[in-house]
Write a structure and sequence with these properties.
Mean pLDDT: 92
Strand content: under 5%
Low-confidence stretches: none
Number of strands: 0
Radius of gyration: 23 Å
Length: 435
């Protein structure tokens, strides 16, 4: 745990003021969800999250008050753990993530899946859809519903807009579910969270467990988009954690392993494919064309192995679910329609749609030029490029959700942590040469 000790008074006061403002804003957002959200799970999360963010604010305010009561003295008395700014992160982790998830998992046992009643959902539809996809894969050989043979018009929840890898998160429920205890233990959200945590631990190990900046944790772990997703859905957290691990592996010169991890992410959710060219530039810059070739071959190989067997069972359904529906071209229009710039521009009509796609294309070209002119050489630079690219995608694509912004936020937190690791490594190298 990092305490307050060792920081200058002015720097410490500024840091604590920023912390208080951050937690207060997060608390206000949680309150808005608790009071106004149409989703039951969001309201439950909001009530618990208010407590977590409020306690973090109060603890930070206490630290600030103690500091101001003793100007010029940053060596505060008392237990070091109690003085740590990380105490607030702990409050939020418990009260805005773990506890609401457990409550919602138990509440889900009352059976409200598949009802058109958002006010009763204890898990967001993506959770049930992914669990259904696993059951379908076991029984039919494909995780996708054939929406053209239902005998009725298809609806949004008939779709599984994910690649075959995402189905793995639903396998525990498909194989072991059936009674209340088994259903509680096999809720897909536990496995999204488990994969995310394991990826974080593996990434930190690759970086020799650096000191994680508090700001990195605030962006990546306890920002409301992350904590809300953790409790109510979770697939995006698993995917972005795989992207971070892929960056770490590439930065540590493990191109084949990086390819496998990134291919798993991209074949779970297609937007993760945007990470592949960025990491490819890192590998080419660090290891040359041979390593780049191996990286590309592994990406292609994993993609073929994962997708071809499923696509052969029902090619039309595969294309409809994985490609057309997310692009807004399926038999049912994607409900992703948060009022971000891309959607607002596209909503003005045909010309607006063309403009939004032109802006998205322009952003892609700009990032490509940046990569060609100055390829990334470090994990921090790669994570930063990914954050910018995925932020542009989330903001400019016509079918978009606020929740997609969790990707750039987590990647920005990762970039800060990578930078800390790189600074520590450079300092160790300097000391070794000085010796």
């Amino acid at each position: 745990m990092r305490s307050l000790r060792g920081l200058g008074e002015g720097t410490l006061k500024t840091a604590l003021l920023v912390d208080v403002a951050f937690y207060a804003l997060c608390c206000a957002y949680a309150g808005s969800q608790a009071l106004t959200s149409e989703f039951y799970g969001f309201r439950v999360w909001g009530n618990f999250a208010i407590a977590g963010y409020a306690l973090a604010s109060l603890h930070t305010g206490w630290l600030l008050a103690r500091l101001r009561s003793r100007p010029g003295d940053t060596q505060l008395d008392g237990p070091e753990r109690a003085q740590s700014r990380w105490v607030g992160i702990g409050f939020i982790g418990a009260l805005a993530m773990v506890i609401p998830l457990a409550v919602l998992v138990l509440r889900r046992l009352t059976g409200v899946d598949w009802l058109i009643t958002p006010g009763s959902w204890s898990a967001q539809p993506e959770v049930w859809v992914i669990e259904r996809s696993a059951s379908l894969l076991l029984h039919t050989g494909t995780p996708y519903v054939n929406v053209f043979t239902l005998g009725r018009p298809p609806v949004v929840n008939d779709y599984t807009p994910y690649g075959p890898v995402m189905t793995l998160f639903g396998m525990p429920r498909a194989v072991f579910g059936g009674n209340a205890l088994a259903n509680a233990l096999t809720d897909a959200r536990w496995y999204f969270a488990l994969v995310a945590v394991l990826c974080v631990v593996a990434t930190l190990k690759l970086m020799n467990f650096p000191k994680v900046p508090l700001r990195a944790a605030q962006l990546a772990v306890v920002f409301p988009l992350t904590t809300l997703s953790f409790a109510t859905s979770g697939p995006d957290l698993a995917i972005v954690a795989l992207l971070v691990l892929g960056c770490a592996l590439a930065a540590r010169d493990h191109p084949a392993l990086a390819a496998v991890v990134l291919a798993a992410a991209a074949n779970a959710k297609l937007n993760a494919m945007l990470a592949v060219p960025v990491v490819a530039f890192l590998i080419a810059a660090r290891l040359g064309r041979g390593a780049l070739g191996r990286f590309v071959l592994w990406i292609i190989g994993v993609t073929v192995v994962v997708n071809v067997p499923v696509a052969l069972v029902d090619p039309r359904s595969f294309v409809e679910h994985v490609l057309l529906f997310p692009a807004g071209l399926g038999a049912v229009t994607s409900p992703a329609a948060s009022p971000l710039p891309g959607h607002l521009i596209a909503a003005t009509g045909t010309v607006g749609q063309a403009i939004s796609f032109l802006l998205l294309g322009a952003a892609a070209v700009a990032i490509a030029v940046w990569l060609f002119r100055k390829p990334p050489l470090t994990g921090s630079d790669t994570a930063l490029r990914l954050a910018i690219g995925l932020a542009a995608f989330a903001l400019l694509t016509p079918a978009t959700r606020f929740g997609y912004l969790v990707y750039p936020l987590v990647l920005l937190g990762a970039a800060l942590t990578f930078r800390s690791s790189e600074a520590e490594a450079a300092n160790d190298e300097s000391l070794r040469w000085a010796a």
